[in-house]
Write the structure tokens for this entry.
Amino acid sequence: MKILSTKNLKSYNSFSLNENADLILEAESTQDLVYIWSCEEYSRYKKLPLGRGSNTLFCGGFSGIVVLNRLFGKQVNELESSYLIKVSSGEDWPSFVEWCVDNNYYGVENLAMIPGCVGSSPIQNIGAYGVELKDLCDSVEYLDLTTLKIKKLNNDQCLFGYRDSIFKQQLKDKVIITAVTLRLTKKWEPLLSYGPLASLNKSGVTVKEVYEKICNIRNTKLPDPKVLGNAGSFFKNPIISNEHYRDLVIEYPNIPAYPFGNKKKIAAGWLIDNAGLKGFEINGAGVHKEQALVLVNNGNATSADVLELANYVKNKIFEMYKIELEHEVRFYSGTKETFLSELFNERAF
């Protein structure tokens, strides 16, 4: 375990917002985590586990201890038709996907360049280009913060949903994910049905080509957080009824929608773009000029600027389409997680 000399969180959140915590610690093992959560010295503090800070918005300072996840390591178990790859939760997700492609482990390439650490992936049930973590996850290990024992859930027990899981619901704030095990099949079938991937030749394409195509798309459309502070996709793609969709098509015939059970999933980026909000700014915070789903720190934004911008976008979308956007980014204020609807005392989701 390391106690950092700084209390400033700017380097530990991808929005690069200049906020502070009471204390910042680095946990390098599960034993470190057990010590931090059982130590009397830290018992009076609220504690926030943090990976890469890539899906986090600090709405002011954090009144407690931020615990940086630095659990690293990978283990591969080869089976007859698949590989079981156990990955420590502090590993960088984009680097892990690249490692899989380089070592001929197939199935994760569609999830290339999603920012964050491996431990965050099951919480959000990350997904892109037709693949979600639930499609690959075998099991998740976690530290129970009540018993301080390591426990494990299989795929079904994780209760994965769209950008959702048991870790955002029943187990929220009660556990810390320590490792994720993926089951990757040896028989690879490329999934090329989404967007620009459809231009690839399914019969001859390689895993490397799919991976590089997705990396190129993301590099072109999405700003690098090291250059322009952002948390990636800020809002979830909303799910609406078929009746609501049919009403919208009358006024907006080009609105993109995808089947989602007996409902429709709408592209949030299109809604924001069609509302004319690309490039819209409030002080130092703005809607990205190329990808409307991304809100950015143009260099001098405060957390208040980002929140005001997000709330403006949310209200504009509701005004135009009667669709309530839900933010994918997780907000922390004081000692707890919060939401735009709470901060602005408006319509609840």
Q: What stands out?
A: The chain has three domains: 2-69, 74-220, 223-343.
